[in-house]
Design a protein that fits this description.
The complex is a heterotetramer, with 1 copy of chain A (about 290 residues), 2 copies of chain B (about 300 residues) and 1 copy of chain C (about 500 residues).
Chain A (H helix, E strand, L loop, with lengths): L8 E8 L3 H16 L5 E7 L5 H14 L3 E4 L8 H9 L3 E5 L5 H6 L6 E4 L1 H13 L7 E6 L5 H17 L2 E7 L4 H14 L3 E6 L2 H13 L7 E3 L5 H8 L5 E4 L2 H16 L8 E3 L2 E4 L4
Parallel strand pairs in A: 1-2, 1-3, 3-4, 4-5, 5-11, 6-7, 6-8, 8-9
Antiparallel strand pairs in A: 10-12
Helix pairs in contact in A: 1-10, 5-6, 7-8
Chain B lengths: L1 H21 L6 H26 L7 H17 L5 H25 L4 H20 L4 E2 L2 H8 L1 E2 L2 E2 H19 L1 H11 L1 H6 L4 H27 L1 E2 L7 H11 L11 H20 L4 H27 L1
Antiparallel strand pairs in B: 1-4, 2-3
Helix pairs in contact in B: 1-12, 2-7, 2-10, 2-11, 2-12, 3-4, 3-5, 3-10, 4-5, 4-10, 6-10, 7-8, 8-10, 11-12, 11-13
Chain C lengths: L6 E12 L2 E12 L3 E6 L5 H8 L7 E6 L2 E2 L5 H6 L2 E4 L11 H5 L6 E2 L2 E2 L1 H14 L16 H13 L5 E5 L7 H16 L3 E5 L3 H7 L2 E6 L2 E7 L5 H9 L17 E10 L3 E9 L3 E6 L5 H9 L6 E6 L11 H6 L2 E4 L3 H5 L6 H6 L7 E2 L2 E2 L1 H14 L16 H15 L3 E5 L7 H16 L3 E5 L3 H7 L2 E6 L2 E7 L5 H15 L1
Parallel strand pairs in C: 3-10, 3-11, 6-9, 9-10, 15-21, 15-22, 17-20, 20-21
Antiparallel strand pairs in C: 1-2, 1-4, 4-5, 7-8, 11-12, 13-14, 13-16, 18-19, 22-23
Classes of the chains: A alpha/beta (about 290), B mainly alpha (about 300), C alpha/beta (about 500).
The complex binds adenosine-5'-triphosphate (ATP) (2 copies) and magnesium ion (MG) (2 copies).
Chain lengths: ~290, ~300, ~500, ~300
């Protein structure tokens, strides 16, 4: 029922477009689309609240209703999104998973294989952790501020940090969640700083939370005596790096992430690519590199 | 009676027409099917909220109670391996308990329900994180049967929601219970002086609202095949907005369940339409903010015209 | 068998204190079957408190009560009603959003499986309402859309409609016109015949002498005497009440009328006011009366800008140009005052102090650069508490804790304090005791003499005839007639009041 | 007067003692310094919210207005390169405009402020995303001067907040303006019929509240060295909770700015203490939910005892 010369429509469904990371991802996708206008049509949809899984499911249902050909999705929840993605696949839509990996167990249970295109978060976090460890003494106190506990990438980053800290023999005194947000991370950081006067470093699972940690240090009058590391390399993080307020961050190339996913989907549509995972690059960003 | 709903039907049709003209593929069966699948849980909670607002109360805790009840449902099904009907009962009991706490604290210490349910908003969310260790619980199969069952093309949840709306409206406008609620919302002191103890009625309303939130939790979990402790954050304001768009007064004493249902429909169509025309996040926010206020302004005019 | 006493209710040695006030001290009272026992006393004497204790709403601190020779200790109003003791309270306690029928039968709505049987309910309500002459009111109308007077009738109807042994009526006639009062009295006679004991509280002494068998006088929470009504006259009751002789000379206001102060032309608005034109002069008291719902209150609200008017002009102080009055603020700035009929909902800030309630109309005068001078404010409040004899623990007491009549005095004080040129007083003496009433008459007359124009709306024709310079009668939203002093009589006023309805039908 | 605050001081001290005993390093200068740096913005918004609650209104939009004003501040400083004082003026103007819209819509159409400010909550957040393209804007240096300035060991924001509390309390209890607000909250109709137009006062209160949110935005941006369009989500409920813990009535007509300040302190100490004893998110939520309700119950008793 489709004309063969019809351009396919690809829907990019991200988490909150109010979040800088996904905003960058969206812009990257739009830039990619501008260069390949004759190859496909693009639709970008985000949800209001990063944790609002229901709304994201509704988004998938909506684009299914609109008859898109492919869905590239950064799931807000690695389990809850599986059934609807499976439904989309059953309806003949190509589905590609980016950013946050869908849960393997649920995928298996649902009998679905959805290719994941994205970075190895654990590796990225470990890189940052190792860079930090070189500046610390063995046995120094460090703390981790995690992302949302139900996000796969959050868990991976935490594990990456832990891997590096363990390898270097650091003392992880606490690991608490900051739910990805500056506002939530800041009081957690304050408590860590005040409760552990000898704390040497705070490892944050994203840059927004690193901003909260930096503010907490200022609130406590501790200036730059504690290292802060972040993840994502948002614009603000680059300034923080320059001013030496954070030690390093990790760039997983959000702008390219979506393009990778879209290209993967297009290839699958053409039957050129199989539904296998594809790893995208992660890079450590430090002040010297800017 | 019919005139009561006319304004809302017109508003709804206007929205559908605008989006049908501006968004490709909006006016399709799939879109309406999607919307029909999405509204049952909001509708059910909106019925409960209508009752709460009518007694001049407010229930901010519905979102957290929903999350907690859903989380418990997930735990009972997956970790304890109980059968679905029993798990649903446990889930409803969770709703009942939360409602009972809200209601009893409100009447026992004569506290504003805003603050009591704000406390519950925090506490129930905390409990939801506690029972799930902050993780989403995938349930899958058994639960999905609920949403997959259809009768005459309508899904079980939708039928349930419509039934709850109809019964709710009848209870409100035709029963002694309903009239007492309106009376309590209008002038609680006068009700007390009429020799009617308003307290059991108030407790009943909070019980009802939280239980309906638990019912919505089952539906939502079924739709998502999973229970998420982060579910429905901010949902309470969305529900209140829908109910108020439906003309229920925040000051109590006035409201209609059917009109709340239209409020839910308006918000759902607006959300779906804005998403489908590809509006950006900030535009969506701006527009939905304005629509909420406009809808209430229109309702004011309608009421004034009718009274004159 | 012991002889059957016809004493139905005995109150013995009842005490009640509120913070700062001894409301009742060792009060004794006997109510007999088939008789009306009237309670009289100044504002704040404790009448309502006593009635509320009998009805189970308040709990006494000491003393005991017997109902038909059996100990009577109601735990609440419901409990009292179960034992056959009912009350119609001084303040309106209706639920505006419910229908008249639902209000009347609120605690015994006829229902099947919880669903209300509206057929039965509305029929029963029509019967009940017919007894008090409200047969024109649709039982399914929301009660909030009725006027205060009609609401009071609904409340009375609800009280009368139930079987009971003792019925307490707390100032039931305060906002009723003669017509309704007669209907009420007919009902009271019927209840007497059925052997009901009635406690009747009122400040209208003539009424009491008409209907009561016994009169108990309260002063400062104590019983100063219980007399058989037959041998009493007005002056004696008043003497007992206030403890001294009262000069109740009606203030003569002849010949002081001077310039035009307020001219209203072709006023129309709402569904109650069709066409109202009148003049009020400096130096006079213009009485305004009419049947209940004739549009008096509504007309005055329109003049004051409280409601939007559809047509009509208002001229102030003899000016040629119509005054621009769109809101009460405009009206007050141009020297008008409106004392509203419904003190609780529209007149008072119940939870605030007497002081704050009085000063609200003129805060600018007790403040400097926006800062309130509390010494000045208190002094102002205290002077009115004294001159109007407002009974309160201190001006800092919240108004909500005062007795009904004293609350009314606070409303009067607030407008006296504003010192306006045109004073529109809607039922200002509602619930005020005889003594205070005469003081207020004197005060209004004095204001008129000082050159103010007073528009005095009242349902009490006697009071109007006693103090007015002229009486304007409204009927069905139009001015039926304006009587000059001396030209009026009860019959002529009444026939004018009915005239609009006769032609309308 | 002193008795008015005694209960709250005792509650505060109790919290400090409990946490000092149970959390390592709680009773240290750094902890108190941190708290002192964190309360100014909440305190300032709480003052505005106290005024709004006193006129029986509510302002749900403070969080979004704060985010929007902060976002504009960031844009003006970074993208336009304007000097700080001018940027602050622009930021305050944003607050004023939001407040004016809230207030004017509320009085013009006689709408419940709950719904109007709910609309603004959405719209202002949308605008914040719009102006920043959903990005956090790092400002750094120039702004930080605000928080880094100290007088007698107290930071500029803290001094400002305390000043605002003192002035707010005086305005409320000593001025004609404050008296009118209390009167409007008690019985708006009676105020109107006393010849006072309540509308300008109501608009003024919404203006005030939003402007104070803009002031808080400056302080917050200075603390965070950046402007974040996602700032302060859910902040409105935290502020309302603090104000209500301070004994201000949601029904209007009753409230105290100084007590609201104590409410803010209680919530701040509770938050810091719970974080520092390492309570998990769910425990924090549970406890803070209960504390909110308990505080209000205690306040009820205190009031009843004092009246008896
Ligand atoms: N809730 C209350 N708190 C404090 N004082 C009260 C309260 N209720 C009544 N009082 C006081 O008790 C006294 C008696 O009041 P009550 O209402 O019985 O008077 P009353 O005789 O009915 O007067 P009125 O003729 O004005 O209706 C008054 O001084 C009043 O101020
Ligand atoms: N716009 C309004 N807002 C509030 N109350 C109103 C309004 N208009 C009228 N009322 C109330 O409705 C009632 C009806 O007024 P109306 O002028 O018919 O009565 P009336 O002639 O004064 O007779 P009565 O007061 O004896 O019922 C009054 O009690 C008045 O207080
Ligand atoms: Mg009385
Ligand atoms: Mg009247």
């Amino acid at each position: 029922h489709k004309h063969p010369d019809d351009k396919p429509t690809v829907a990019l469904i991200v988490k909150s477009l109010a979040n800088e990371f996904f905003k960058t991802m969206e812009e990257g996708a739009r830039a990619h689309h501008d260069q390949h206008q004759d190859e496909y049509d693009l639709k970008v949809i985000g949800i209001k609240n990063e944790t609002d899984v229901t709304q994201q499911i509704e988004c998938v249902e909506l684009v299914m209703a609109q008859g898109v050909d492919a869905i590239v999705i950064a799931p807000a929840d690695s389990k809850a999104l599986v059934p609807v993605c499976k439904r989309a696949m059953d309806a003949g839509i190509v589905v590609v998973n980016i950013d946050n990996k869908l849960d393997a167990d649920v995928l298996r249970e649902k009998n679905a294989t959805i290719p994941f295109v994205g970075p190895d978060n654990r590796k990225g976090a470990a890189m940052a952790g190792t860079y930090l460890a070189d500046r610390l003494q063995r046995g120094d106190e460090v703390a981790i501020i995690e992302g949302a506990p139900n996000a796969f990438n959050g868990i991976q980053r935490k594990q990456g940090f832990e891997d590096a800290m363990q390898a270097a023999g650091m003392n992880v005194v606490s690991s608490q969640t900051g739910y990805w947000e500056t506002d939530k991370a800041q009081p957690v950081a304050s408590a860590l700083i005040n409760g552990h006067p000898d704390l040497k470093a705070i490892l944050c699972a994203n840059d927004s939370m690193a901003l909260g940690a930096v503010a907490a240090l200022r609130d406590a009058g501790k200036g730059r005596s504690v290292y802060v590391i972040g993840f994502d390399n948002i614009a603000a993080a680059q300034r923080l790096l320059k001013e030496g307020r954070i030690l390093c961050t990790v760039d997983q190339h959000a702008d390219k992430l979506a393009s990778f996913g879209i290209e993967h989907a297009l290839q699958m549509l053409k039957g050129e690519a199989a539904g296998v995972d594809q790893e995208t690059p992660v890079d450590l960003i430090t002040a010297e590199m800017l | 009676m019919a005139g009561d709903y006319l304004g809302m039907v017109v508003a709804l049709l206007a929205l559908v027409i605008v989006f049908s003209l501006s968004a490709k593929n909006f006016f399709t069966a799939t879109t309406f099917r999607t919307i029909a699948n999405q509204i049952p849980d909001t509708t059910i909670v909106a019925v409960g909220m209508t009752f709460v607002l009518i007694i001049a109360g407010i229930d901010l805790s519905v979102s957290s109670v929903l999350a907690l009840a859903g989380a418990v449902l997930g735990i009972v099904l997956v970790n304890w391996g109980w059968p679905l009907p029993l798990a649903i009962v446990v889930c409803l009991v969770v709703g009942l308990v939360c409602g009972a706490v809200n209601g009893l604290v409100v009447v026992r210490w004569r506290l504003p329900s805003f603050i009591v349910t704000l406390g519950m908003l925090e506490a129930a969310r905390g409990a939801a994180y506690r029972v799930t260790q902050s993780r989403t619980i995938y349930v899958g199969g058994p639960l999905e049967a609920i949403t997959d069952t259809t009768i005459l093309g309508l899904s079980l949840p939708l039928i349930g929601a419509i039934l709850i709306v109809v019964v709710g409206q009848l209870v409100l406008s035709r029963t002694v219970f309903g009239r007492y609620l309106i009376a309590i919302g209008t002038n609680e002191e006068a009700v007390r002086l009429s020799g009617i103890d308003p307290r059991p009625y108030k407790v009943a309303v909070f019980l009802l609202c939280s239980s309906l939130a638990a019912v919505a939790a089952v539906i939502r979990a079924a739709r998502m095949s999973s229970a998420n402790p982060n579910a429905a954050i901010g949902f309470e304001l969305e529900v209140i907005a829908a109910v108020v768009i439906g003309g229920t007064s925040l000051m109590g004493g006035r409201g209609s369940v059917v009109r709340s249902f239209f409020g839910v429909l308006i918000i759902a169509v607006l959300g779906a339409g804005l998403a489908q025309i590809g509006a950006q996040e900030h535009t969506k926010r701006l527009i939905s903010g304005c629509v909420i206020v406009l809808a209430v302004i229109l309702d004011q005019y309608r009421r004034r015209v009718r009274n004159a | 068998m012991p002889p059957v006493s016809n004493t139905l209710l005995t109150v013995a040695g009842v005490d009640k204190t509120f913070p700062g006030v001894r409301a009742l001290a060792h009060v004794d009272l006997d109510v007999r079957a088939g008789e009306v026992h009237a309670l009289v006393g100044e504002n704040g004497a404790g009448k309502s408190t006593l009635a509320r204790i009998i009805a189970g709403i308040d709990m006494p601190e000491a003393g005991r009560m017997l109902l038909a020779d059996r100990p009577y200790r109601p735990k609440g109003r419901k409990d009292a009603e179960a034992m056959g003791v009912r009350i119609v309270m001084q303040e309106l306690n209706l639920i505006g959003t419910l229908s008249v029928a639902e209000n009347v039968f609120i605690d015994r709505l006829p229902s099947r499986f919880g669903f209300i049987d509206y057929g039965v309910l509305n029929r029963a309500t029509r019967n009940v309402m017919a007894q008090v002459g409200l047969d024109r009111v649709d039982p399914s109308m929301p009660v909030g859309s009725l006027g205060v007077g009609q609401q009071q009738m609904v409340e009375i109807a609800a009280g009368l409609s139930r079987r009971c042994r003792v019925l307490a009526l707390d100032e039931p006639t305060a906002s009723l016109t003669d017509n309704e009062v007669s209907l009420l009295f007919a009902q009271i006679e019927r209840l007497k015949a059925e052997g009901v004991g009635i406690i009747y509280i009122s400040h209208r002494i003539e009424e009491i002498l008409r209907i009561a068998d016994w009169v108990t006088v309260l002063r400062d929470g104590k019983v100063v005497g219980t007399r058989e009504a037959a041998g009493l006259d007005c002056d004696e009751v008043i003497r007992l009440m206030v403890g001294r002789d009262m000069v109740k000379a009606a203030p003569a206001l002849t010949g002081v009328r001077s310039d035009l102060a307020l001219r209203v032309i072709a006023l129309r608005g709402g569904d109650k006011v069709r066409d109202v034109s009148f003049d009020a002069y400096r130096g006079e008291i213009l009485g305004v009366t009419g049947l209940m719902g004739s549009g008096r209150t509504e007309a005055m609200r329109l003049v004051f800008g409280a409601d939007p008017r559809e047509a009509g002009d208002i001229y102030l102080g003899g000016s040629e140009r119509p005054a621009r009055i769109r809101t009460p603020k405009d009206a007050v700035e141009r020297g008008m005052a409106l004392l509203t009929e419904d003190r609780k909902a529209q007149g008072l800030l119940l939870s605030l102090s007497v002081r704050a309630n009085i000063s609200i109309t003129r805060l600018a005068d007790v403040s400097r650069l926006g800062w309130i001078d509390s010494a000045l404010e208190s002094a102002a409040a205290r002077s009115y508490v004294e001159s109007l004899n407002i009974r309160c623990a201190s001006p800092e007491q919240s108004v909500g804790q005062l007795s009904g009549g004293n609350q009314q005095k606070v409303v009067i004080a607030k407008w006296l304090y504003r010192d306006c040129d045109v004073l529109i007083f809607d039922e200002p003496t509602r619930g005020i005791d005889v003594g205070a009433k005469f003081e207020i008459y004197q005060m209004l007359a004095a204001l008129a003499r000082k050159g103010k124009a007073v528009v005095f709306v009242s349902s009490d024709l006697n009071e109007l005839m006693a103090i007015s310079s002229r009486i304007m009668v409204l009927s069905a939203g139009r001015v039926a007639e304006v009587f000059e002093q001396g030209a009026w009589s009860e019959e002529r006023v009444l026939s004018a009041a009915f005239s609009g309805y006769i032609t309308a039908d």
